[in-house]
Amino acid sequence: MAHSMILAELIGSLSYALDLTEGQPEGHCVRSCWIGLSLARHLALDEQTQRDIYYAILLKDLGCSSNAARISELYLADDRLFKHDFKLVGEGTASTLGFLFSHIGRGSSLKRRAESLWTILRHGKEITDQLIETRCYRGADIARQLRFNETVACGIQSLDEHWDGSGRPLGVQGEAIPLASRFALLAQLVDVFHVAGGREVACAEIARRAGSWLDPRLVNAFTELARDEAFWATLESNEVDAVVFACEPGKQGIAVDDDYLDAIAEGFGQVIDSKSPFTGGHSQRVALYADKIAERLGVVPERRRWLKRGALLHDVGKLGVSNRILDKPGRLTEEEWVAVKRHAAYTEEILGRIPLFSELAHVAGAHHERLDGGGYPRGLHAGQIALETRIITTADIFDAISAERPYHPANSIEQTLDIMRQHLGSAIDATCFSALEAVLASEASPTWEPSTLQTVS
Ligand SMILES: [Fe+2]
Ligand SMILES: [Fe+2]
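A: This is the predicted complex of the input protein with fe (ii) ion.
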């Protein structure tokens, strides 16, 4: 079945999750898309090229979650803040070093900061190469899974290449850098500096990087475009999302059918799971368990398919939580707990941007609600919690307890079920739990072996 929504609206809405990962103010990818698209139109590029640039920019940060944990661990820093501030650093070694000195290990002991700094100074190049490589290749791979063509995938892969060859991962230069990447880098910088300092600051920063980071011809074209008041007015308005979605180049012929929706949910599920080494495969497993429980409870196939998407995306809000907290081995402080709990509301907010997902947003965003009213984000009571949410919650808790987490080792299926039994009726729905038990008893499939429940460490 084809749904009455355009692909741009779906992908554009999900790009808000990528903004969260990058620590960017919400709407960064959509605004960058407007900047790149306006430039492509200004240059009168053909429709297919405009379309490739459009999606390469909307999805430029698809791979970002995959280096968040490493950044947090290496730099002893809040990955989101680190990534945000790093985008504002000027060119050159001195600026980079100044940034590192001021950002490494904020809040850590002097000894840990010194150790971290020493590692980075000694292995800085390899570390940065690795971080960028992970992000670029992972992002391109996920774009391919989302059925985008090679031009879009390569545009994402080469986002960090610079015109003068000083970029990464390959250090290619000039026109050897895919056109979509050159557009994406320029558009990203314009948005970051425009948000931070306004139009003049953005224009000055772009001009300064002409010929070093940026394609000088694109910079010239941007300088012309920057004289157009209407361009800035849209960029600065609340209508920018609607305008960008309505302007999707070559939009005819792309139907978002159920298969494509499944593929998009799977792809973003991977972005979510890449955020932390402790959640590798979590969304996929929760989707699998939720589907099995739903089947056992007699939920009709069409609704199960819908629910599976919700299960894949239930933790999309975790992209907005720092890995300093998500991967913390010890007890969380009060403040850190508040930050973790925010992920459920973020999930509802992100999915709620997509009209087709409005019901799913409530169902998935409520996965930490408890039947006794002690859950979050709303503190709903049993009568207010849908069956579909209870199914996701049961699957989620089963995976969280059975898999290794920073705060506990992996548990066997029996241990996991024993722990869950203590929470029946308060946090876990007894009917969903019985269905889970029945599924586990009936399936001798290897997918249910505890070894496969352990997360990648
Ligand atoms: Fe969660
Ligand atoms: Fe979860």
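Confidence is low (pLDDT under 50) at residues 448-457. The pocket of fe (ii) ion (ligand 2) is lined by residues 282, 286, 314-315, 396 (CB under 6 Å).
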